[in-house]
Protein 1
Amino acid sequence: MIPCIDFGGDGPALHFLHANGYPPECYRPLITRLTERYHVFSMRQRPLWPDSKPEEIADWHPLTDDFLQFLDEHPTGASIAIGHSLGGIVALRAALRQPERFRALVLIDPVLFPPPMVAFIRLIQVLGLSYRLNPYIPEALRRRRIFENRASLTEGYRRKSVFRNLSNPNLEDCVDGLTRPRPDGKYELLYSPEWEAHIYATGIWHDMDLWRALPNLNIPFLIIRGAETETFWNSTARRVLQKVPATRVVTIPQATHLVPLEWPDEVNRAIQEFLQENL
């Protein structure tokens, strides 16, 4: 059985897929709001499985296989899929492969780049240069893994620019999700830096399959992006709208790629309005 968290809640089934490096618990402020209307499940993706190894995958397609297997293991009928970043691509590929399994699809700042960027990443991958040219990979591999105590951990994360828009309570929830206590009283990262780097190294280069299949998507489709994101560009949004004109795109002001962690109220409001109008 694929591990997951059942966050509970009443209503239709909703599956939330987390980003690379961010376990499901990081999203508790958003997911708690979603449980007011939906029964929320969050599969732990392969990097969070016990004894999983990065070399098991060469691209992101197996992560979608995992999600579809998870749906087989939890037969809730046609459900809602919401994915952030990597999780958005996993959900999108699943909905394109087996649309009958989904009532609606919500992507939050998905790692979806236009075809010229896909071609460039493909070239880098073919030349074996991903670990040398992708700036996120050395950053991930340098990530601190062990922390002396909870106070220093939170203080250190508060100083990181990536978390600048998170309120203190939301940062506390994020830290709870990112780490776990050790028997010696210290804290350690839950998400392996090696896995995080490997996900960066193996993504995007096969994504022309997404662009070719997008016109076939015929379920309610929402994309939420941060106004300051470096991941889901305005040009990508325009290209998606050309492929699927019925898509709704919502941009959250003063938000980055971590928009669901930064502004859970606003993201929840956009999701709830969209689902109430379309289901």
Note: Residues 264-278 form the longest helix (15 residues).
Protein 2
Amino acid sequence: MGRVQYTEIQCKSAINRVQGMPFKWSLNPYVGCAHSCHYCYARAFYVKAERGNGDDDFETRILVKANLPSVLRQQLLKRSWSGESIALGTATDCYQPAEGRFRLTRAAIDVLRERRNPLGMVTKSPMILRDLDLLAELARHAPVRVVFTVTTVDQQLWRIIEPGTANPYQRLAAVRKLNEVGVRAGVLMAPILPGLTDSVASIEAVASAATEHGAAFWGATALRLMPTVKEHYLAFVERQFPELLERYERAYPGAYAPRAYTDALNQRLQRVRERHPLGDVSMRFDADDSDTAAPPLPSGQLALPLLA
């Protein structure tokens, strides 16, 4: 990964309507992500938007939506805005290193706090604790939920698959602190990587760590390899885990893989969940997950090859 370059741009809209997802509105202060997770689905969005390639460009050419806070305020003041929950960090991590410099996420949360607008967030960064004051205040008036993705707690594997991210135990410590101040936070094991993190021991380790750190909910999603992401990820597998490459190529003729793995993975997840009965991490940010049991992974949508 080369040196990261930042380019400030002007956005026409801060929040955008989302189709085919469990949430209706998204907000992303940045385009691209220096966290450099090799499995990241957002690589495909970066290429589709003609911002560059899904490899080094995605990781090192970060676009900064400099006017996002003011545009967000204008959108929320419109009579047509009904105050629905907004999902932050759906195509980039709002707390990637750029946030330490540009502080757009903090500014956006402050606008949401002013309007008492519900929010949900997905992140891998403990930098979120910098904004604990705003999040805690908003949580007293509107639903706030933070999802930390923790793919593995194996220290060696973490560094290989997510080279630009914070230690998973730092993320877990942030989960505890958020819940202590009334901000509902939990853990999503996403994605489960065939042959790398899909063993019972690996799933159990993440679920156990989530429980030990007071997570309000826990869940898992499976790997999907859409175009652009597939090419990048398989090249990564060939470099780092060449013994798995042929299996991936057979199992992923498209974005999804055989149902057999989905069924086997569901069984593994269910056994682990019985030992760690936390709420579900459903990505519906407007939903109350306090007493929700985890549904099985839908066949055909979150399918994986059985490699482990």
Note: The domain at 5-275 is CATH 3.80.30.30 (pyruvate-formate lyase- activating enzyme).
Protein 3
Amino acid sequence: MNKNGVVIEERGNRVVIATGLTKKSSNAKTGGMVQIYILHRHESPVAAVKSGADYVNCGNCKHRSQDFKERGWFVNVGQGPSSVFKAYRRGVYRKVTKREFATLFGGRTVRFGSYGDPAFMKPETIQGIASVADKWTGYTHQWTKRPDLQSYFMASVDTPSEAAQAAASGWRYFRVSPFGNTEKLRGEISCPASAEAGKRTVCADCKLCDGARPQDGRKNIVIQDHSSIKRTNDSLVQIQGVR
């Protein structure tokens, strides 16, 4: 059995896998976080994108597309997600129960949704991991349907109007700004781990993307769209100003 990863949920067409338990992630932006993947259980990530079956782990996210050239998201499904799926299909990850969460995730930093939307995890799984983790990050496009997740995750928004709606509904949000758009909205700061902010830290050391607290005075986060689909040869520029 591979000790670096475990299956924490397996139901219907969906499987949830945590990796990075013994070997730190090499992701330069996030740092050495435990990575949680929400995947289609029976189709590879690439096949699920092509068939549209990735709805089970991505829902109604507007960045989904069966045409890879039209996908507007950061994750290359042919790399990390596919490697995790292949290992799962080989049976190298053991299944664990909530009773083991303290041992597996206690004092760790956790990235909910390295691929897939964590809103498709069981609420008790989310609560169980967050209750023992030192800190975590998480983002959901299901925020209009899942107000119960406000204290765990950031609302993923793509426009100023969505940002305003999320904030009015009690969410803190993470907004993806069009590449080259250098304006901040009021109450936003650039993602401190982003290229345009000078990569001042990594997600593992930052505590900003863990949802909203009562009377939370922390800023919302904005980052320029740096997905591989929309990347150009232009240099990223600092997002600045307040509209």
Note: The chain has one domain: 5-242.
